[in-house]
Backbone:
């Protein structure tokens, strides 16, 4: 998927979720804000079953292993 703008992300979050999001940019506040919004749409804050969140320092093998 091609990169999308913040405005398009807002619209997409209202209509549904994609299977994977890669949030990047220089503004730490916006990155955290959108990752939190996506997380809240996926699961309740206390529900940790089948919920994984990876940071930029993770290994791609770890992401692959979690998906399998």
Residues:
């Amino acid at each position: 998927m091609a990169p999308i703008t913040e405005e398009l992300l807002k619209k997409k979050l209202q209509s549904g979720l994609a299977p994977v999001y890669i949030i990047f940019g220089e503004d730490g506040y916006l990155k955290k804000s959108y990752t939190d919004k996506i997380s809240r749409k996926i699961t309740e804050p206390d529900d940790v079953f089948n919920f994984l969140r990876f940071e930029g320092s993770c290994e791609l093998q770890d992401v692959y292993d979690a998906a399998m």
Notes: The chain has a mean pLDDT of 83.
